[in-house]
């Protein structure tokens, strides 16, 4: 991996258990899908790092290539790509997202 | 059906031969939102589809197949927002 943006992204997802790449911030999401993703993580009561792609054009483009996924938001858990907001909602409703957090030992929100 | 919705329908049908396919234009729910471009603009969609090829595929793989089928339609000036509900026959 020689792409410096991809290396930055790999560093972020490698050093945080749960990372949400989103538009805006958890307090002020700038898109309905990002807002949904934040609401799900808050319901799960897990600690997560968020990256505002609107504030970083390199990551905004780079994350799409890194994940081979054309849309934002994107969720990573323990370095693994989980999906976007549709998948998060499906997994949340099926209890699978909670199970993933528990099985991988993700810490609860402080 | 609007032009963009019709194009979505055609591309998904060609690529995935879904047994059930619904393309829903949600654009009217987003008046005044940054991605909404006026009264006639189609920008926000939900697609629901059932396809035999989804059997045994992960959620990520299914959505990637949908994005691949839509190709250059998945761009901010075409489809601004897309919700995907993808199932294999017999699910849900």
User: Approximately how much helix is present in the residues of chain A?
Assistant: 40-55%
SSE string of chain B: HEEHE
CATH homologous superfamily annotation of chain A: Glutaredoxin
Secondary structure tally: strands of chain B = 3
Give average pLDDT of chain B, whole number. Answer: 88
Structure, described:
The complex is a heterodimer of chains A (110) and B (92). By secondary structure, chain A is of the alpha+beta class. Chain A has a single domain, classed as Glutaredoxin, CATH 3.40.30. Helices cover 48% and strands 15% of the residues of chain A. Chain A is built from five helices and four strands. Chain A has helices at residues 4-15, 32-44, 57-67, 85-93, 96-103, and strands at 18-22, 49-52, 74-77, 80-83. Chain B has 92 residues and is an alpha+beta fold. Chain B has a single domain, classed as BolA-like (GMP Synthetase, Chain A, domain 3, 2-Layer Sandwich), CATH 3.30.300.90. Chain B has helices spanning 3-16, 59-70; strands spanning 20-25, 44-50, 81-87. Chain B has a three-stranded mixed β-sheet with strand order 1-2-3. In chain B, α2 (59-70) links the parallel β2 (44-50) and β3. In chain B, α1 (3-16) crosses α2. The model of chain B has no long low-confidence stretch (mean pLDDT 88). Chain B: One of its GO terms (biological process) is iron-sulfur cluster assembly.
